[in-house]
Amino acid sequence: MSESKKGKCIIFSAPSGAGKTTIVHYLLGQSLGLEFSVSACSRDPRENEIDGKDYYFLGLEGFKKQIEKEAFIEWEEVYTNNFYGTLKSEIERIWANGKTVIFDLDVIGGLNLKRIFGEQALAIFVKPPSYEELEKRLRSRSTETEDKIQQRMNKANTELAYAPEFDIILFNDDLEETCKKAKEMVFNFVNK
After folding, report:
1. pTM of this prediction?
2. Which residue, 61, 90, 154, 168, is most buried by CB atoms nearer than 10 A?
3. Under the phi-then-psi rule, with left for phi > 0, alpha for psi from -120 to 50, and beta for the rest, what region is 181?
4. What residue ranges of the chain have pLDDT lower than 50?
5. What are phi and psi of 99, to 5 degrees?
6. Cα separation of 178 and 98, whole Å?
């Protein structure tokens, strides 16, 4: 990535079901000069997901080709043969437009980007009120199989332990209040 085009980044990470995506969508509608970094993945689109808007759906072979080309600033195999990553070209495109990049990432991806961007990034961990509430939220989506829910809950246990490594832990027990706090944090970081 070219040094002259560096900008700022906002990183939101959390276990599945903690509310990070809802918070990120709220912030994108708040005239803060943010633009969403669309992640790439190897999985197929879910119903209502759009390539280039929700994710860049590369397929397993396509994703592996991009790894070989060193097209990612970070990537990981989240579950077996289920890869997610951030394309360098996506960040460069957003910075070239004079915007601040906002990420919605899993915990390991968020920490990887925080290490890469250092002071240019504000890394926020969205913490659910409880493990039980997290499971309730995942079940209320009705989009996951029981196996997937258990897989996500097991992963959440590990992810919650990483919270102290983020710049800020944002406790999400009241979504409206949490969104207001997030807006203030982001505004202060972008404008400092």
Report:
1. 0.86
2. 90
3. alpha
4. 2-4
5. -105, 165
6. 27
